[in-house]
Design brief:
Elements lengths: L2 H10 L3 E4 L2 H15 L1 H8 L8 H12 L12 H4 L9 E4 L3 H11 L21 H4 L2 H10 L1 H6 L10
Parallel strand pairs: 1-2
Helix pairs in contact: 2-3, 4-8
Length: 162
């Protein structure tokens, strides 16, 4: 979008975003993309480690740290995907609270509450697999690469809070 288009949207529309904890988002992207794209999984493994393992995830994090973070929107920093500064957003919802945040948004917009119907690919279960995949090295890489996401969207940098 051009600066003019962003300014026009900013003045005439509500600005809403739904975000996800960077720790679970990156792990989910790794688990999902690693299993569906052999080419991408091979790219990660160039940084050491077998796909689907802790060592493979560390390799993926090294790949991100070496410039890969900007190669795919599935792991691109969320604050960089949003054309507005966080302080200009009218509503920030979190995927961890999707049902309640969606209903809070609908209420704010004056619309009736809705129950979500799950559609799309099979969930990766990343939020329940943090301890299985994260090491000190991968935690530090993600903390560094996504520091603005943690800060701007109110997520704790403490891995145990993910």
């Amino acid at each position: 979008m051009t600066k003019k288009q962003v300014a026009e949207l900013s003045n005439n529309y509500k600005k809403i975003i739904f975000v996800r904890n960077p720790y679970t988002r990156v792990l989910s992207a790794y688990l999902d993309k690693g299993r569906i794209s052999n080419d991408l999984a091979r790219k990660f493994s160039n940084y050491d480690g077998e796909a689907g393992t802790r060592a493979g995830f560390e390799g993926f994090c090294r790949y991100l740290a070496n410039g890969g973070v900007y190669e795919d929107p599935h792991w691109y920093p969320q604050n960089r995907l949003c054309p507005f500064p966080s302080e200009e957003l009218d509503f920030v919802g979190k995927m961890e609270n999707l049902n309640s945040d969606l209903n809070r948004l609908l209420d704010w917009l004056g619309l009736p509450a809705q129950d979500l119907v799950r559609a799309g690919p099979k969930p990766t279960g990343a939020s329940g697999r943090i301890a299985e995949f994260y090491s000190e090295e991968s935690e530090q890489i993600i903390k560094s690469l996504y520091s603005d996401d943690f800060r701007m969207f109110g997520y704790s940098e403490n891995l145990q809070d993910a």
